[in-house]
Amino acid sequence: MRWKPWVLLLLFQICINKAQDEGNQPAKVAFPKEVDTCNGIFLLYTFDSRQKEYPRLKNATAQSWAFKSQLAVINAGTTELKSWQAYIGFQHDEILVSVDGAMPLNAEEFPMRLGKNGTHLIGYPHADLKTAIDTAGDLPQMSSLVKIKGTMFGVRLGGNIMPTNIKLENEGFKCPKAKTKNTRSMHVCCTKDPKYKAKKKKTLKFFPRRKADLSFTYDITQAFKGSYMAQVTIENNHPLGRLDHWNLSFEWMRNEFIYDMRGAFPRRKDPSNASSVPPDNTIKTWISQRS
């Protein structure tokens, strides 16, 4: 008898709260002076503030500090930038508590420990940056502002609080070493690499599936104005392992709420989630197996 994988399908009808979604529009960014000489993608990292946290320790290397910073990404070139990605070389064992205006790549949940490896950010919900030429210089359409809040360790008063580097990670661009201006800002201008040759990509209807013992797939099956339908597939490919009493959690990024569900039920039914949004503009929903 041939063993077959166990597959579960969940169907969702999801609505988007339009009134609250207007709050997710890209924030306005002021042009820094250095962007005037950039013909490409300009990145500016600014360290806003920090404050000593509890417990207050005598060991300076173990002392934690709450910090706030910003990353501005501005398209100062002649072509639109699709799905921008950037790297920030955090080096002080930072812990990210919240990121507004982008998403950490391969992140799990906040708080997120970075160590000394830095982090990779992808633009969300404002992922594509248009040019000044196509927008008549409309800054909100050609730039994105990321607000970062977290904890850093071991930096004495007067010490180096800046990351090691910032750069654009989109293919086809090259970035020199970022320049530090005073002790609280860093900028770099990334330009197109004339030697870059785009790789030929195979045309696929869907992204290729990854092999794993347990896989989760979230597919949008239908999209409408203000709502969409999604299908979640849980597939157990392990020949021996069982998955009993499973639970899933979703972190909504555009103020969604579930209107209808088939194949599972929410563990917590809170109508206020449809009209109230936490400070970080995310709502987490827990889904449980239907007996």
Query: Helix and strand string, N-terminal first?
Result: EHEEEEEEEHHEEEEEEEEEEE
Provide the structure class.
mainly beta
Number of helices: 3
> What general outline do the C-alpha atoms trace?
globular
Low-confidence stretches: 19-27, 274-284
The fraction of residues in strands falls at 35-45%
The tally of beta strands, per DSSP, is: 19
What value does the average pLDDT take? 81
Helix content: under 10%
Main sheet makeup: 8 strands, antiparallel
How far is the first residue's CA from the last residue's CA? 28 Å
CA-based gyration radius? 22 Å
What does this structure look like?
InterPro entries: COBRA_pln. Keywords: Glycoprotein, Signal. Belongs to the COBRA family. The chain is mainly β and 291 residues long. The protein is built from three helices and 19 strands. The strands form four sheets. Strands 2, 3, 5, 7, 9, 11, 12 and 13 form an eight-stranded antiparallel beta sheet that branches. The radius of gyration is 22 Å and the shape is globular. The protein starts with 5 loop residues before the first strand and ends with a strand.
